[in-house]
Amino acid sequence: MRVTTPLALALALFVPLASAQIVPEEISIDTMPDPGPNWFISKTGNGGYIFDATTGEMQGLLSLSRYTPAVTMWQPRREFYATESYLSRGVRGERTDLVTIYDFENLSPVAEIVIPNHMARLSIRNHLGLMNNGRHLAVLNMNPGHSVSIVDVEDRVFIYEASTPGCAVIMPVADSDFLQLCGDGTLQLIQLDISGFEENRVRSDIFFNVMEDAIFDRTARSANGWYLITHAGTVYEVGSQGSEIIINDSWSVLAEGEESWRPGGDEFITAHRDTGLLYVAMHEGEVDTHHVPGEEIWVLDANSGRRVHRIELEVPATSIMVTQEAAPKLIVADDDGGTHVYDALTFVFERTIVTPGAAMFEDF
Amino acid sequence: MKLEKIIERGYYWIDDQARQSSLALARKLSRRSFLSRLGMMLAGAAAFPLLPVARSFAQSSVEEVGDPQSCEYWRYCAMSGTLCSCCGGTYTSCPPGSEASPITWVGTCRNPVDGRDYLMSYNDCCGKSVCSRCGCHNTEGDKPVYFNSNSNSVLWCFGTENTSYHCTVSLVLGTTDETN
Predict the structure, then answer these.
(1) Is A15 helix (H, G, I), strand (E, B) or coil?
(2) Among the CATH numbers 3.40.50.360, 2.60.30.10, 3.40.50.2300, 3.30.1330.10, which is that of B63-179?
């Protein structure tokens, strides 16, 4: 009793003195710093997670609709563009499709443009394409016939819906044109005028057979156009010159005796434009195994058609993307929901990033 | 009493309309014309069962073996999605309260019992949350989205009141030797 009383008194005096020296913390809200090299968006079912591939640190989140096919951006305006689709009661009720514009600073919606409720609600990167002029955004529709909604993201208005029967995929070329793949084995070029309306439409000759060896609806942007690949691994580089569609000579990713290997996965093909390196997730399998994740990533020099390296994976890859920096990173989503970073030139594994399973990646 | 009078007047009105339209028709059409149209209708009705859709429904049920709750089941060779047979429905019926999409993708599957190839229709059931039981992704004959009639990646909840995806059923439309 004699000891405890003075101790209690000492504590009673000491505690208020100690707490008086602590400044109460106040909550604050960060803003996004300027994007650094090798930043990327990991698009998941829960939104777009922004990461720095060099450090593996998350920078912020874009909240996107569950049905968002893809997200893209335009650096000069410091804006992201995402197509979204909402049902007023979650799984029922009135449907609203829209293009939502998010700012860089707060990753917050700053504008919404309602579009026809025809958006193809599939997680496919090339179902959304911002024209190279940064003004007109093309959104792929399926109702169930194919069409394309054109939105002016600068003036924030829906322009019109162009019917594109039998053709899908949006591959921007030139200033305000885009190429599409068609089920009859051709390419379609649609050229927009300054207002975003269709000015011209051209169809190529038939150059592939969708029943015998289909070209995937996943493509990769090249320095001059786009790389296409068939289920059996034949690569075409395509582009445009004015109103002419250019289809270069094809080559195979397979060497002799490698016919059992096939490309496949989700967004399984990506290219580094400056070096012409093409990265393709490959697996061993039969015909019609084109959605099987890749056991390896093959790195090919698209200029010579020769393979440079085979990256063997512990867990097969579903989606891959190479950043466009001079020291690029290869981002890999695996079949178990993991996300991994490799040096894209030395092919050395660098880190694993913890994030919900990514459907695809978008470079900053 | 008043109600009876209203009903009676209604009957008179219907009778009168029918009489007037019959007279108008008789004035416009000859008897031969009427008979020829009647004949066309009868011939058309007789020809209807020859159409492929009607034939497929006319055949007897398919003999099959296996577990309809397994992705390995023969009907699911080009299936992508959640099996309705695991979600309160069957491989031909949508679970309670969902809506059947009338628009589908198709595939061709071989039945191990009779060794015949069957034309399959994969219909999505819509209007509820995704069931997420018995996920199944087979790609036999699957084509890219630009060839959407044979693409199993597409959400096929078109033509339904609510467009959310719940699960998928697989219906036999006929055998491929019938359609050849």
Answers:
(1) helix
(2) 2.60.30.10
